[in-house]
Amino acid sequence: MSDTTSPFAFPEKAAHEVVLERIRAGKISYSSEASDVFTHMYNHYRAEKVRIQRENKES
User: Fold this and answer.
1) Alpha carbon distance 51, 33 (integer Å)
2) Which of 31, 35, 46, 53 is the most buried (most CB within 10 A)?
3) At the top level of its lineage, which domain of life is listed (predicted)?
4) Whole-angstrom distance, CA of residue 25 vs CA of residue 11
5) What confidence tens digit (pLDDT) does each residue in 40-57 have?
């Protein structure tokens, strides 16, 4: 990624950066693909943040 953004602190911005990088790399050519990738990455980053917070509470 060009500007590194912590996916745990800013999941929306990090997901947006992933989409932009995939477009630049030619891996995304349709807007529906971009939307799907953004949604997937955003949900993944949020789920990981919740998982890590839960693990830290248990420790």
Assistant:
1) 27
2) 46
3) Bacteria
4) 21
5) 999 999 999 999 999 999
